[in-house]
Amino acid sequence: MKKKKIVILTGAGISAESGISTFRDSNGLWRNHRIEEVASPVAWHDNPLLVLDFYNIRRKQLFEVEPNAAHCALAELEKKYDVQIITQNVDDLHERAGSTKVMHLHGELKKARSTADENLVYELDSWELNWGDKCEKGSQLRPHIVWFGEAVPMIEEAARICMTAEIFMVIGTSMVVYPAAGLISYVNANSPKYYVDPMASRIGDISNLIIINGKAGTVIPRLVNDLLK
Ligand code: OAD
Predict the structure, then answer these.
(1) What are the strands, taking DSSP E only, across 76-138?
(2) How far apart are CA 33 and CA 14, in angstroms?
(3) pLDDT tens digits, one per residue of 178-203
(4) Best label site of 87, 152, 199, 216, fewest CB within 10 Å?
(5) Pocket of ligand 1 (CB under 6 A)
(6) Residues 171 and 219 in one domain
(7) Domain residues for 209?
(8) What are the catalytic residues?
(9) Residue 135 C-alpha to ligand 1 middle, in angstroms?
(10) Which residues contact 22 (CB under 8 A, 6 or more apart)?
(11) Please, where are the H alpha helices in the chain?
(12) pTM, to two decimals
């Protein structure tokens, strides 16, 4: 029998209980820089060492943290459902928890790519990416991240996937960064849409929206349990 399709949009909040700080809960600042000023093509042009440092610190932290109960519960959902995760997160905690279909809208921290050819993408086996690390064509490598001001290459495919959702979930995202935040509007009006976040509130005129104010690590295992019954 064909499995029911669940599409899940996740943000920084799902990884908060693993020990990765979210963007906007910490005032969106890093060493007194606004995140937007570090994660941008302009920053890369003006101060690449600062940008490399910013992502190296994040990558190092990623090697030290583990998936939490929410990531693990979502992996369990695959027992009964066709689950597609669309994450804004650049960590690999969904994959490490066992989820098999994960789309990274904003890139991946453990990958680097060539500044000369965006198709040359490399897995990093250590946390450090340095100035002078080059691709096979001899050009500097940059973090494989979609920066502010850059296009989101997978957004059209993500929108198509959202159209097929029979159940939709939004977990741990402030829903302020577009185009990701707009994906919910592609979901069928009749499909239930759960929004799990301690700060969740109504989103425009979205129908069948079920708001659950709570932490992902507590709420998601319960919700998954109910869906698996
Ligand atoms: P934000 O930092 O904007 O929002 C994090 C959300 O997580 C907030 O709504 C919190 O209330 C919620 N939250 C905190 N703790 C939680 C918990 N334990 N369980 C569930 N939710 C919790 O992060 P994003 O919405 O992911 O882009 O930000 C979107 C994008 O903006 C990011 O992908 C990043 C950022 O700048 C790029 O880097 C391109």
Answers:
(1) 81-87, 102-104, 107-114, 121-123
(2) 24
(3) 999 999 999 999 999 999 999 999 99
(4) 199
(5) 11-13, 16-17, 22-25, 35, 39, 88, 106, 146, 172-174, 177, 197-199, 215-216
(6) yes
(7) 1-20+67-106+151-229
(8) 106
(9) 32
(10) 11, 12, 13, 16, 172
(11) 13-16, 35-38, 41-46, 48-62, 69-76, 93-97, 155-163, 216-228
(12) 0.96
